[in-house]
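Hi D.,

Good news: the full-assembly prediction came through. Inputs first.
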Amino acid sequence: GNSVTQMEGPVTLSEEAFLTINCTYTATGYPSLFWYVQYPGEGLQLLLKATKADDKGSNKGFEATYRKETTSFHLEKGSVQVSDSAVYFCALSDNDSGAGSYQLTFGKGTKLSVIP
Amino acid sequence: GAGVSQTPSNKVTEKGKYVELRCDPISGHTALYWYRQSLGQGPEFLIYFQGTGAADDSGLPNDRFFAVRPEGSVSTLKIQRTERGDSAVYLCASSFINTGELFFGEGSRLTVL
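Then the structure:
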């Protein structure tokens, strides 16, 4: 079955530090890949996505590249801010476009704390 | 409202009781999902609705769990004979069809004593 493995947290960084959160996946076929973020007191929200190999998703200074050869989708940001403190979830979906379902398989989440 | 609304935000119940959790999706979203998130874990898929029908209920753990969406908008997740292992945050999400961008509510935290 499908699975997502992401680096364990928590991760604590100083403001302006470089961020990498590793994510690897196992899937049949050609899934779409996502990063979702959950800020304190809020619901999960989509951060970025990539739907095919070598695609790069980007948003709010975050980037992730769909690497089929290494089955990875690592999240990076060049300079984190205190406001980036949140829990980050890597996820994949089987593209069952016939039924319109985007059933997501999530990793366990990585908690990021950015200190001033 | 502008986002996905879930009620109650917190529910404490006793083992063996019946529970209903409600989800009000974003207006116009025809796809609706329920997920369950246990402590320290990522969300796990339960059920997907396309319109009024449950198109995929493969994630429901057993027959104590049931969900409905009678008019294609609001959905209710129903749990019968609750067990302590049902304690988790139940998340609802909605989206347009054929898009991977799911909009999640803040969840309903269920505690079974």
